[in-house]
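Quiz preparation item.
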């Protein structure tokens, strides 16, 4: 705080100097009185004592007044300082430091103390402002941390919930897969097994712990299919598409004990950061194949005699004609008709007629070679396909031999009958066109020719032009 400059103030040092001079003066007087006391009479001595007493009293009064004037500003400063010290820091009731101008030194001291107090107050206010700012920043930071902690807690709770959901879904999926009626296999991009359900264990004989981490091809695929499988997996890994994805295909696989069986396979894939994951469902179709084979066999067999029906005969005859052309050998067709069958059927009933047809069919089968095919067209009409025939004469000779067992008596349930058969022969040469209907028609015409000639004989059809 700058000093006031209105007027000059008495200096404390001057008063102290004056007091020191008075003290010296009193000392000198006291010495003079002592000297005079020794040299003068008593009257003069009394006067000097009175004068010294008066002068000492005056000087004492002057010293007391001087001391009071000197102590008063110091008391004011001391009282102000003690008052401020007794109050709490920052109190609004703190007394100010008085600015005293009694003496120059007191003025300097009061101004210095007031300046110090003012600077202290400014620093205190600055510290209070800084403290409030820090407290506000800490409070805001605390609120931010609390908000972030709440968000983190919520995120952790959501993550835990999501993990719990994933565990539950994984458990549900595992239960579904383990109780599925199809074998489930999961593979990575290189064809290594990553999962395997319980039905796969039952179907293929390998436990899940034995196959996870192993290549699938070497475990269930026959050697002939492994190359195609590896090419397909390579295409899947590189492009993510293949002919077997998202469709059902049938293939043959092998169980742990080496037994091969057919399965229906459906595959799907899911892209991952490091490639694809493939899922395969395998369904055993052995029973379906057996059922289809049985149905197909039923569709190709005559229900009465168990022989191939017309459809099967057409297929077999077409294949025989192609082999005849390839091997440069003849193929013969016998068209047989039972003479007098209608009379037996009308007289003894359909059951006896059916029994007659069954016995007739068995005699034909027993009379020809195992490589020959015997079939029933319809009613009492039968066809025999003979391959590897030498010529027309050998075919006619075979037909004549066939007539002998057919004319033996037939023992039915209620009666015994004796019938004969008529046979028409048509020969297919290696260079003839493969016309099945034409060949059967020629054999049929030859059979009617045999009937016209008196029945119980074989007639050879003319070679086709």
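Solution:
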């Amino acid at each position: 705080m700058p000093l006031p400059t209105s007027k000059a103030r008495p200096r404390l040092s001057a008063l102290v100097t004056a007091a020191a001079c008075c003290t010296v003066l009193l000392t000198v007087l006291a010495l003079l009185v002592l000297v005079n006391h020794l040299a003068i009479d008593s009257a003069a001595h009394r006067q000097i004592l009175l004068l010294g007493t008066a002068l000492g009293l005056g000087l004492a009064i002057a010293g007391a007044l001087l001391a009071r004037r000197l102590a008063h500003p110091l008391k004011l400063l001391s009282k102000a300082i003690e008052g401020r010290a007794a109050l709490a820091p920052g109190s609004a009731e703190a007394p100010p430091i008085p600015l005293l101008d009694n003496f120059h030194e007191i003025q300097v001291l009061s101004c210095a103390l007031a300046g110090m107090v003012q600077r202290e107050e400014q620093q205190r206010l600055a510290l209070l402002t800084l403290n409030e700012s820090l407290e506000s920043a800490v409070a805001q930071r605390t609120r931010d941390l609390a908000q972030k902690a709440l968000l983190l807690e919520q995120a952790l709770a959501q993550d835990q919930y999501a993990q719990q959901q994933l565990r539950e879904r994984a458990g549900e999926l595992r239960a579904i897969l383990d109780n599925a009626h199809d074998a489930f296999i999961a593979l990575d991009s290189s064809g290594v097994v990553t999962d395997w359900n319980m039905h796969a264990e039952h179907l293929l004989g390998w436990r899940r712990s034995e196959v996870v981490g192993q290549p699938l091809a070497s475990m269930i695929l026959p050697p002939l299919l492994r190359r195609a499988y590896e090419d397909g997996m390579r295409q899947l890994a590189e492009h993510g598409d293949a002919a077997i994805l998202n469709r059902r295909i049938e293939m043959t696989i092998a169980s742990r004990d080496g037994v091969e069986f057919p399965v229906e396979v459906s595959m799907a894939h899911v892209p991952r950061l490091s490639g694809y994951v493939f899922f395969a469902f395998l369904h055993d179709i052995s029973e379906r194949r057996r059922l289809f084979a049985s149905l197909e066999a039923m569709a190709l067999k005559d229900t009465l005699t168990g022989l191939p029906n017309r459809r099967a005969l057409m297929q077999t005859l077409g294949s025989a004609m192609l082999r005849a052309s390839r091997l440069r050998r003849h193929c013969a067709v016998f068209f047989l008709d039972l003479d007098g069958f209608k009379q037996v059927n009308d007289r003894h009933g359909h059951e006896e007629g059916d029994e007659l047809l069954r016995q007739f069919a068995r005699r034909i089968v027993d009379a020809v070679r195992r490589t020959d095919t015997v079939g029933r067209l319809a009613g009492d009409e039968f066809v025999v396909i003979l391959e590897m025939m030498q010529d027309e004469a050998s075919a006619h000779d075979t037909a004549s031999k066939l007539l002998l067992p057919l004319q033996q008596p037939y023992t039915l349930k209620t009666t015994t009958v004796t019938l004969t058969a008529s046979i028409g022969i048509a020969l297919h040469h290696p260079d003839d066109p493969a016309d099945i209907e034409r060949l059967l028609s020629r054999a049929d015409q030859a059979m009617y020719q045999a009937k016209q000639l008196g029945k119980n004989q074989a007639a050879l059809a003319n070679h086709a032009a």
